[in-house]
Amino acid sequence: MTARVVTLTANPSLDRTLSLPGPLVRGGVARLAPSSTEPGGKGVNVARAVAAAGGDVVTVLPAADDDPIVRALRALDLPMATVPIATPVRTNYTLAEPDGTTTKLNEPGAPLDDEARGALTIAMHQHAEGARWVVLSGSLPPGTPLDWYADLVRSLRDTGAKIAVDTSEAPLLALLDAGPDAAPDLLKPNSEELAQLSGVPEAHLTANRATALAAVDTLHARGVTEVLLTLGAEGALLSSAEGVWAATPPRIAVRSTVGAGDCSLAGHVLADLAGAGPAERLRSAVGYGAASASLPGSAVPTPEQVAALDVEVTTVRTEGLPSSTTAPPVTWSTTVPAAGRDVR
User: Fold this and answer.
1) Which of 262, 272, 310, 342 is catalytic?
2) Is the pLDDT of residue 1 over 80?
């Protein structure tokens, strides 16, 4: 098995960031600062962060050979495997305010027919064979069966790679409803997604650690091996059979939260590739997420930028102890700030 990482972005995008001079005013006129356009989509963002750290990575996506996103990825020297489609890749727009607040305007993306999905599946198998990690990230294009991620997880088991999934809404619910054989090795929900899966109001999850841990335990009961719960400016939790750890991020000046959750996932994967234990995997995840949020647009951090940040990690519980007795109530903010929202 090699240390290769393979990512799938079924619904890629060109991420265009528009920098506002002040708070967004509905119906007003804003004179923008210089804007930027970068190749994006959650799996692409993970791959870019892994590549920036010198990792062996391949990103798989549907796009024509002359699509602007392919030209942009070539300019970054990012290894990729593309499945040609006729429709141009979508553009997602981020309105970035000076205080770090971001407003996202996401296009729906290009539909994929059965032939394109089949070709993507074949490409994933070809590159994932013997890899260390496979990452399935982001929303599904219009018309895609909601259980496609579940089908992919099942079919990729024979590659020997660990499988991580980061998605939301109906595809996320379908993944967990598909049964333990479709459960990924790593799931990366945020608090909103954990609320969707557990049926517990998000405000309850963010206000009390014990409630959040009980909700995370329901994911383990459904077959998920490891859960990386990202909480934005409040940090993150990592839960596995080895125990549970919590991390507090450093104070940063938030410039853009686009891709911060993707970089958190990349940080976990990179630490795992280096042989790190769970506490250090979480430290790396939170460091990468914070470093990403301190950068403009959907830029990804370098290892040097991550290393400069101080992330505090504490042990919440050890193996075999129920969360109800080992996780005392801890007050978190009941609203997750702008830095805490991942973008699909």
Assistant:
1) 262
2) no
Residue type, 280: E
The angle that helices 148-156 and 169-177 make with each other, rounded to 10 degrees, is 50
Confidence of residue 338 (pLDDT cuts 50, 70, 90): very low
Q: Is there a contact between 231 and 267 (Cβ–Cβ < 8 Å)? A: no
List the domain range (segments joined by +) for residue 318: 5-23+31-340
- Which pLDDT belongs to residue 320? 52
262 has catalytic annotation: yes
Say yes or no to pLDDT of 47 above 80. Answer: yes
**What is the mean predicted confidence (pLDDT) over 64-80?**
96
Query: For position 209, which CATH number holds?
Result: 3.40.1190.20
Cα–Cα distance list, 72 to 76, 111, 127, 257, 309 (Å): 7, 22, 21, 21, 29
Rounded to the nearest 10 degrees, what angle do helices 191-198 and 169-177 cross at?
50
- What is the rounded CA–CA span in Å between residue 267 and residue 298? 15
Provide the number of structural domains found in the chain: 1
